[in-house]
């Protein structure tokens, strides 16, 4: 009986906090808004609910959202079955200060990585997402850390900016709307903060925050700024390179590199580069097809490059061997001109998808196929390889045998594997029909037998091009690629 009493006293009210408002929303047809955040959002939630009464049903996540690690653990619980129209969210202060989580990895990099996971999950709800920038750190050592945890923690403006920029980069990448509460309250921090050693606000301060939160939610509800659906196709269409430059002229054909520069890029930089080569069976596609991959590591400070190469279309006289030559020429040009491109010549990662993966492999493997006028003293060997559902075998058991012709073995990656290849990360689906699983596993085995680093990310049920059809897989591939590059010195 005592247990039942406790359930009635503590559990049911907590459930009612979420369930009853959603029931009202279902009956009235009002938009459903979820607030996710720490005690700052807890401070303004009551006023937000009051101001939106009759316009929307507002629910705050149960308890304190704490740091991003808590968010990753509890996000499913907070999302529930709400079918949310708007999600207004923030993590930040706990990642900066730590409090109970002081011993966890809360670096700006770890913060960004966990935000990436959280935003990817929130996108799947279909709700309009609004990121609230983290309100300012207090100018003096924070009182709770000092009194309760006996540690003086003072967040410098530089460190605070690193967290703000880390979050901003994730939101920009995903096209999430920004509610800049930091800039709103910062000029009047002394007026509205409860003290110089406290991150919280007075009632008047929470009122200021609440009014801006409501304004942003009302815009979202009204649809004045409809949220774009992020997809691989939309990224292909909307992304624009910072610069397009020629790297090779073959006959009357000028071949180009499409460059994407990170924020703050300067020509004298020595940045790591992620060079990508599009697929299309060697006969189709163009650099724009792989713009999403070229741009994927740009927020992390990489120069992204998408390569144009000649296509082996019937009647043009261009062969698959020419595609390989062009790919090798592109990497050689990038390394030879690294200084003017702002790239570190020893930190060039090359990735490719499908037939582009074959061409990417060719930059490391096929040393007997180069343009006659190439400066062979400059290496075209990448410092790391990323294979995205790549063509691995050009025999009759693999792909493209008829198109390649009788000399297929000379440019068949499976049959040319050797020691000393770059560290290689392979993304593949177990239902890929271009490089079926038995060929894939034999490729990985031979790579390892030769002493090469070869990591496989195998997607169960994944078909050819699987990453391009699922933004969750795309973002995961980008995160894994970044981690792989960094682990091999490309950072």
UniProtKB/TrEMBL annotation:
SUPFAM superfamilies: alpha/beta-Hydrolases, SGNH hydrolase. Keywords: Hydrolase. InterPro entries: AB_hydrolase_fold (IPR029058), BD-FAE-like_dom (IPR049492), GDXG_lipolytic_enzyme (IPR050300), SGNH_hydro_sf (IPR036514). Residues 269-436 form the BD-FAE-like domain. Pfam families: BD-FAE. Gene3D superfamilies: alpha/beta hydrolase, SGNH hydrolase. GO terms for molecular function: hydrolase activity. PANTHER family: AB HYDROLASE SUPERFAMILY PROTEIN C4A8.06C, ACETYL-HYDROLASE LIPR-RELATED. Belongs to the 'GDXG' lipolytic enzyme family. This is Alpha/beta hydrolase.
